Each structure stands twice: as C-alpha cells, then as structure tokens.
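Suppose you are handed a protein chain with no further information: no name, no annotation, nothing but its sequence. What can you learn? This example shows the usual starting point.
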Amino acid sequence: MSIDKRNHDRKFVRTFFTSPTAVEGEDDSAKMIRSASQLRGMQAPDVWVPDNEDATAPSMRDEGAANIVEVVSENGADFPGEIHPRVVWHRDSPSTRYQGFQHMLQIADPAKDAVEHIDGFVIPEVGGIDDWKKADEFITIVEHEHGLEEGSLAMSVIIESGSAELAMRKLRDEMGKPDNNLERMFLLVDGEVDYTKDMRAITPTGGLPPWPELRHNTSRGASAAGCIAVDGPYDDIRDVEGYNERMKDNQAKGMTGIWSLTPGQVVEANTNPLPPQEGSWRIDADGREVTLTNEDGVQVYEGSRISLEETGDGYTLTVGSDTQELSADELREELVGLTDYIPSMDDIVDSMEEFEAAKEAGKGAVAITQSATLRIDGVEIEVSTDRMWDEATYQAAMTPIALFQDVYENRPDQHDDLAELYSEDVVERAMEVGN
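A reasonable first move is to predict its three-dimensional structure. Written in structure tokens, the prediction is:
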C-alpha cells in the first residue's frame, strides 16, 4: 500500500457534523439524530457523526447507542453523506475504552441492520500511537465478531492532547505493519477545547487560543499518512464571518474540512471551499484586504485608507500615511502590486482549458492575462497582469477543481445546487478538465 495515496473513496471532507444521540427529557430521545438523518443537499454534511460522547450525557449513552442503531437502520440508506458514530474512549481509562468497545459491537451487529450504512467510527481522547493501535484492534475485533471484512470500518480520531499530536508523526511509520490495521485511518480531527485543557493553556478572556500550530500539524500528519484533516468546532455559531475566515485560514494550510455544529454552519462549510461563482478584485488598503465593488464592469474602491487624485502631469496616490507622485505607468505598476484577482470557477476552468490546449500543441507554458478598470475617488485607470501558467501552476489550480469533482461524484444530492450556483455548462466543463 502506498501511504501517499488516499485510502478511502472521499478525497476531501468539507463538513463534520455532530448531533447528540440521546436527549434527556424528550418523548423521543433520538429526536436530534432523527432530524439530522433527514438533512439533504447543502444542509447535509459530508460526514455525519451521531455523537455518543461529549454531546450526549453519560447517563444516556447506552440509550444513545440503541438510538444510533434504530435511526441509521431506518434512514441510513437515504442519507447522502458518510456516517461515522463517535463512541466513548479515553487514553487513561480502561473502563471507558471498554464501554466504547461494547457500543461499537452493538452498533455494528449486522442483525440490527445499521452497519451496512455505517462507514466507520470516530475515536475521541486518544493518546500516543499505542493507544491508536488499541482502538484499531478493538475495531478489528468488532469486524471479526460480526463477520465483516477486515478494514471495512474506517477509524477517525480526535486530536485532543499533546500525546495525540505527537502520535501523528509516527502514524505513517506504523501504517501497513502486519500487527495492525491502521490503513483504516480516515480523518484526523482537531479538538481544541480538550487540547487546551490538556496543554494547561491560559488566555486573559478564558477563550480558546487559535492553535495555528495544531492545525498545521494535523494537516501535515494527514497529508503524510493519506488521511484527511478536519478542524475543530467554531463555537460562536452566529459569527458567520469569523467561521468563514477560519475556513479560509485552514484552507491555506491544506485543511479543507471543519467541524459544523448547526445545519447553518454545514451550509457555510459545504460552500466555502468551492471556487466562487463570480470573480472579484481586492486591494491591499494599508494592510487591510478590501474587496472592490463591481459597478458595470468597473472595480470601485470605496474606503478611506486609499486616495487617488489626478494632477496636471500625473497622479497623487496615498495609501495610509504614504503619499507618492506617480506617472500613469508608475501608478499602474503600483496598483498591480496592491491588487489581486480571485478567479471564479469559470475563470479557473478557462485557464486550465487554455493550458491543456497549449500543452496539446507542444507548448510548456502559456501566459494568462487578467485586466480590469479600477476607480478610486472617481479616478479610473486600467491595470493588467500576466500570469505564466506551466505544469506546476496547472497542478496547483487542479486542487479546487479536484475538490469540486469529488463533491460532484460523491454528493449527487447537491447536483442541482451546484448547477444553480455555476450553471450546467460550467459544471460539465469543470468535470472534464484534468481527465
């Protein structure tokens, strides 16, 4: 087995959505997972996690395991994403590990008709690599007890301790050895709340540190071991802008997936990583990125951090406290340095098609031109940039397209949403490039 090759059908996971398996004081204690099992389209996650650990009270977990069986056996066949229940586990507690093992045995019993719709289990609170191997061994025993194919149930872990973080460095070396089935590893998911507790971290407000190092290490560990990295929960469910900023920061680290706590967050996380419907220009306004407003094809800056005045023989450009007297050519050069273009899905596909045609004709590279008219303080000026596309550029651009293709292939329930977002023509062309 090649460790550098993804071991599961999904190449990307955008959304990891948890829901409590049993709610105390309700006529139907399974109401939350019953509702989650009926999500469809952009509201349905790529990975749904009936959560029989933190989201469910300890006194309700036996009932929660029974609820998983009931709901998944009834609704699992129609659920459009993967289903990975989270069971209890703890690196320091044999009794907790045993309880999780018993729940896995119960959930995976073929006679209960749920396991055929279950893709794997999520194991929380893991420690060092030997603890990961214990969890893997328990899942292997579950498979043997129930006559399931060895390795058929995936295993995902929550990185909630320093020991688990260090274990990611050893995972690549352990996978493929005859004494384990760690090839079943699927997701590496950050759990920043318990990680903060384990690290004894303190912040003035009592809030969570951002832990960029953990997210980088998880992304690196997943890449090295052929797994998929997922960020932890973003607790402020009303802060949509902050949630999207967190995802943008994650994606720059190679971490496409994020935990979602509500169907609203699922929609944001399902949509955010995909290339935008429309291209847009942005400008560096004295250290702040500002998206320009498109007014009839003209890109307009409306802030106060940049000013532009046309003089008799040139221009006066002020950015923050820095003022420059520039000729037209010098101004264009300065604005090119301050602006960036964020390509739309259509733009990316166009550029890839152009490079593929050039490569077919025997060319190793092609220049892709992007032009715009900028307006600042009523003054308009044309800017233009040329980007040289070679094979490396093409392969880098393939990553968001590969994400789109993976979504389209694995989530037919989202086909109508994607066609509405991009148009049927763009969808068809995006599915063709790179193949």
